[in-house]
Amino acid sequence: MNISSLQQARYQYQPKLPGMLRNGISDICVKTGAPTESVADQEKIKSLFPNTYGKNEITFQKGSNTSEAKKQVVGVILSGGQAPGGHNVICGLYDALKATDKDNVLYGFKGGPSGLLEDSFVIFDDEYINQYRNTGGFDIIGSGRTKLETEEQFAVVAEVCKKHGITAIVIIGGDDSNTNAAVLAEYFAAHNSGVQVIGCPKTIDGDLKNEDIECSFGFDTATKTYSEIVGNIGRDANSAKKYWHFVKVMGRSASHVALETALQTQPNICLIGEEVAAKKMSLAQITDYIADSVANRASNGCNFGVAVIPEGIVEFVPEFSILIAEINELLAGEKADAFNALPSWADKYAFIKAGLTKESMAVFEILPEAIQQQLFLDRDPHGNVQVSLIESEKLFSAMVKENLAARKAAGTYKGKFSPIHHFLGYEGRCAFPSNFDADYCYSLGYNAFMLIQYGFNGYLSKVSNLSKPAEEWIAGGMPITKMMNIERRHGHDKPVIRKALVELDSKPFKYFEANREKWAVETCYVFPGAIQYFGPSEVCDTTTKTLALEKA
Ligand code: FBP
Question: Which atom of ligand 1 is nearest to the CA of 82?
Answer without folding.
Answer: 4
